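Quick illustration, no need to memorize.
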Amino acid sequence: MLSSIRLVLQPAVYLLKIILILLICAASLPSIAEHVEPPTVVKVNVLSPFSTQQERALLYSFRQTLLEEFNVEVTKTLIFWQRQSDWQQQLELNQPDLIIAIGNDSFNKIKDLGLSTPILAMMLSKDLLQQLRQHPRDNIYAITHTQPTERFVQLAKSLNVYQAQIGSFVSPQIKDQIQEFERLARFYDLSYRPVIVEPKRKGRDAIRQLSLCCSVIILESDYVFRPGKVRKSILVNAYRQRIIVIAHSESVLKEGAMLTLFTQPHNIGKQGAALYNQILNDTVSLPYQYPASFSISINRKIARLLGYDDLKVGALMRKIETLDLIQKTMGDGKMQTP
């Protein structure tokens, strides 16, 4: 009789214990919440010509990363210099903690205004970033969306092309890039030949040089050839001569490039948030940065026709990351790979 009573009461005792534990936890929740630090609130003014989808993705990622990872809440004010005639007066009217300049034109408009507020320029071109690295400016920080040259060369190396020869389009205005390509080509045991062209020649000279150039050609930016018929003609001729084109944006992929290296705007926003957190804590070690992350896209039709239908994005990215680690370990390209 007693044992049967115990069997009946035992589940009730367990249930009572569970209820007591839940009540204790519920009672302790307010005290736990009291120890959560409220976010630091900062005012950020954003200067751009007009709103775009890319800009919205970048700014959303910037705000969310600061809040979720660094407990910093952003209140932003958008300033469009193409629409607001008083944009210059608006820049520091509300005493912001940071001014973000989106793109080259926005940065060029404010870089010499002598503002007291820190400036974070994002989506800058490579040449502007290099200018800042060569001539640092107090209170100015920057992130480019263009890839470092070594990343393009690493991707070319990752393709394992037999007796690979790489080339790049170079205009007379940016001939200094040749030395950087030559240094990287030596490090990765690749042959290199620049295709020095003058865009005013409508691309005929570039097409002529392609046949003598290389097995892989790199188009780093829009600087030499802007989007249009000339660039598309060059890409078509590269394909006809079975030359692999590695380019800098997905738009070039649609024109005939086989591979593109790029960084999504939301990743630039995340990187910008991390840099601004360093600014707030006075721990900035690298004020002018290339993208920390990258993506690869493949034109499957071109890849199949050129005999690379088995390419895998993940495998290529791992190879690039490995080569980058080797390069840094061996002195950032000052030594040659074994």
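The longest strand covers residues 40-48.
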